[in-house]
């Protein structure tokens, strides 16, 4: 099993859209068993994969969500031993349903991080909560985390437990800045976490996880030609000067996100692909709860949009293949 965080602390860069389609593509075309964990308290992945009635039923009393795993922790009751994901037949993947209440754990995780990095075992155990969760996911080939747009403590805990992260980014100057911030945060977190681990005599035994080491590697980035920004009149607008920014991206990525685990990766390997503006295909996919590459006339696709569906199928296909190859080549 390999765990992959889809991460950028910038919002609206297409993380959730990419994640749902990439996960579905790996499942349907590469025959992989895929679990998505919705670790964004905004629950957009959950909403993309299931219709509104089903989502409402998820939150009826007693439903198992990502918070069901986290909640016992906040009561000092240890980790959940079970995982009850939901099956999305349209996407061919399982989902650990998101939960707005997950947001309540930001503070708890922040406090426990401070204590954990000072060598407190209980603080480190809480910090490793997603590692415990991942130990329940061994039957899967891939586990993807959808994440909110922040450098907060939930996202830190996710990244600390994952094998890889991939980064969708829009082509504007703020995305380049975001990459630098991600890099700075990762470096600081890694150092502080290591200090916490070093203070413990037997980390495996005391933290009760198979591999508590920091092992996060960069799996590549996806550029988005679309940016979810709005003009003053409320209309979404594409970002200007794509090409100028695009030329700077490989260097910024290499300077900031590569570490010793992937020393030989070329620019073309790291750049998993570029997703064009998909216009009405994105809302059609959202309303029919189907992957974009499987949309058809019965979902409302008309005219020239059929060729856009085929084009997207090829693009997401290349992204899947490159990602698989990067993950295989990394260790
Ligand atoms: N390639 C695309 N073309 C057009 N719209 C897109 C594209 N990718 C995402 N969107 C839209 O942009 C918005 C943000 O995308 P989303 O995947 O939710 O980003 P994030 O998870 O990074 O916040 C959504 O409204 C989505 O429908
Ligand atoms: Mg999202």
From TrEMBL:
Chain ranges of the AAA domain: 1-195
CDD domains: ParAB_family (cd02042)
Matches recorded under SUPFAM superfamilies: P-loop containing nucleoside triphosphate hydrolases
Record protein name field: CobQ/CobB/MinD/ParA nucleotide binding domain-containing protein
Protein species of origin: Ruania alba
């Amino acid at each position: 099993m390999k765990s992959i965080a889809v991460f950028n602390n910038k919002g609206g860069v297409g993380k959730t859209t990419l994640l749902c389609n990439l996960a579905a593509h790996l499942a349907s075309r590469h025959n992989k068993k895929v679990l998505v964990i919705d670790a964004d308290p905004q629950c957009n992945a959950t909403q993309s994969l299931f219709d509104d009635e089903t989502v409402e039923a998820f939150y009826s009393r007693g439903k198992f969500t990502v918070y069901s795993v986290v909640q016992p922790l906040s009561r000092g009751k240890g980790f959940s031993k079970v995982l009850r994901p939901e099956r999305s037949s349209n996407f061919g993947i399982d989902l650990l349903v998101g939960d707005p209440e997950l947001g309540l754990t930001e503070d708890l995780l922040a406090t426990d991080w401070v204590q954990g990095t000072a060598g407190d075992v209980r603080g480190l155990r809480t910090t490793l909560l997603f590692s415990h969760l991942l130990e329940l996911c061994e039957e899967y080939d891939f586990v993807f985390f959808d994440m909110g747009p922040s450098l907060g403590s939930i996202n830190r805990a996710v990244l600390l437990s994952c094998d890889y992260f991939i980064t969708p980014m829009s082509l504007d100057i703020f995305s380049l800045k975001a990459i630098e911030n991600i890099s700075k945060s990762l470096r600081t977190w890694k150092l502080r976490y290591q200090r916490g681990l070093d203070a413990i005599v037997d980390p495996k035994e005391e933290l009760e996880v198979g591999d508590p080491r920091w092992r996060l590697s960069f799996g590549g980035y996806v550029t988005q030609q679309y940016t979810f920004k709005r003009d003053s009149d409320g209309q979404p607008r594409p970002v200007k000067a794509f090409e100028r920014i695009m030329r700077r991206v490989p260097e910024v990525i290499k300077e900031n996100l590569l570490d010793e685990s992937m020393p030989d990766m070329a620019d073309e390997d790291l750049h998993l692909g570029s997703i064009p503006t998909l216009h009405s295909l994105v809302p059609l996919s959202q309303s029919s709860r189907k992957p974009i590459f499987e949309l058809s006339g019965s979902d409302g696709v008309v005219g020239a949009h059929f060729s856009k569906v085929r084009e997207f199928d090829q693009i997401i296909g290349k992204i899947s293949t490159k990602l698989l190859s990067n993950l295989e080549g990394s260790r």
